[in-house]
């Protein structure tokens, strides 16, 4: 995950290459990550700083439960804030 500060609202870009799987698999990954970000924003009062976030996925996420995915994405965001 990377971050680039910019004025205005925050934007999240998801990069899921074809090597991860078929279009169905890649779209499912995008939906799961977007829902995870919504849950984090709702439950933990996650406030993304204004700018652009890029989250790259390099492997299928089917083996991870929703709780595990939420924990991983939350940890990535916390690491970005520390930098």
Would you spell out the secondary-structure blueprint of this structure?
Blueprint: E1 2-5, E2 11-15, H1 23-43, E3 51-56, H2 66-82
Parallel strand pairs: 2-3
Antiparallel strand pairs: 1-3
Helix pairs in contact: 1-2
Describe the protein's architecture and organization:
The protein is an alpha+beta fold and 83 residues long. 46% of the residues lie in helices and 18% in strands. The chain is built from 2 helices and 3 strands. It has helices at residues 23-43, 66-82, and strands at 2-5, 11-15, 51-56. It has a 3-stranded mixed sheet, with no helix packed on it. α1 (23-43) packs across α2 (66-82). It is globular, with a radius of gyration of 13 Å. The mean pLDDT is 87.
Task: Report a brief summary of the structure.
The chain is an alpha+beta fold and 83 residues long. It contains 2 helices and 3 strands; from the N terminus they run E-E-H-E-H.
Molecular shape: globular
Report the average pLDDT across residues: 87
Count every beta strand, where a strand is a DSSP E run of 2 or more residues: 3
**How do the helices and strands follow one another from N- to C-terminus?**
EEHEH
Which characteristics define this entry?
alpha+beta, three-stranded mixed sheet, 2 helices
